[in-house]
Amino acid sequence: MTIPVDKTTIIDAAPAAAATRGRRGGGAAVWLRWLGKLGSAVFVLWAAATITFLLQVLAPGDRATLLLNLSSGESRERTPEELGPVNDQFGFTDSIWQQYLHYLQGLLHGDLGTSYQLSEPVTDVIAAQLGPTLVLTISALIVAWLLVLVTTTLTAGRRGPGGAVGALLDTVSAGLPQYWLGSILLVVFAINLAWFPVESGDSLRGLVLPVLTLAIPLAGFLGSVARDEFARALDQPFVLTARSRGLGDLSVRARHVLRHSVIPAVTVSGWAMGALLSGAVIAETVFARAGIGQTLVAAASSRDVPLVSGIVVLVAAIYTVANLLVDFLYTVIDPRIEVP
């Protein structure tokens, strides 16, 4: 008995099968890319941890002596009887490989060591100071992006003084040194006009000047990146299509062009988070604000190597996670983008 076969069905099914295989292959490629990025993130964290370990081991001076002097507040030579218990407790006399493996094992369990000066776990010291710094840096990032969105939408790609003024503001803002800008804001608005407190403290008013110190230069940099892409996007066919539908200039810019122009700026937002964390050292110092920056300066001044190393590992972790989030935001802003 012969079974009839519909050749048309077979022909029509071929492209569908090919498309299904393509989607499966594409999904596998996406997973491989993300696994590669996670592997790179793990490598960065391992490298940061290894460097900080070497800084502790290779730092000049005897670590047991330094620990005793910092914890007691007096600087003098220590006897073997004083150094012995400290060396045994912290394993300073073990081989470097043993110390390194113990250090990595501690990191996996969230143990960053013990502060020489405070005699407290580094994780506890960082946890107590991390909140104010995260509030400062995240607020600065949000304010910077608000400035970028407003100035870019209103001035980018315009002929005449509007576009020139916007580009000039971006260039000047991006080049402002944070320490100089913070000092000017402090003198003018806190000391002379008394609009804001001289010491930042925990109040909302005290947060304004430190946030502006970090946000203005960052907004200039991000704005310069977004402005160039915005001007190119204005020449794309979809803009002409949107205008032909009767949309006004501002509506076209805000609803269509802006979405395409911010992608390059989003690219550097992961780097920006790391830059803001380093800038927090300056802002917290200028405005006498509690946080990781102040803690890092004090730890570096007193040669509290475990605390400095712990903060370095933390910054590396935040920077790595921020870059992974940026890669994820690509696909949210424009699903057609493939993570490189």
UniProtKB/TrEMBL annotation:
What does the record give as the organism's lineage? Answer: Bacteria, Bacillati, Actinomycetota, Actinomycetes, Mycobacteriales
Q: Which InterPro entries match?
A: BPD_transp_1_N, MetI-like, MetI-like_sf
PANTHER family noted in UniProt: DIPEPTIDE TRANSPORT SYSTEM PERMEASE PROTEIN DPPB-RELATED
PROSITE patterns linked: ABC_TM1
Keyword Transport in record: yes
Keywords from the named record: Cell membrane, Membrane, Transmembrane, Transmembrane helix, Transport
User: Which membrane topology term applies here?
Assistant: Multi-pass membrane protein
CDD domains per UniProt: TM_PBP2 (cd06261)
UniProt cross-references to Gene3D superfamilies, sorted A to Z: MetI-like
Per its UniProt entry, which superkingdom is the organism in? Bacteria
Q: What is its main location?
A: membrane
Q: What is this protein called?
A: Peptide/nickel transport system permease protein
Q: Where in the cell is it found?
A: Cell membrane
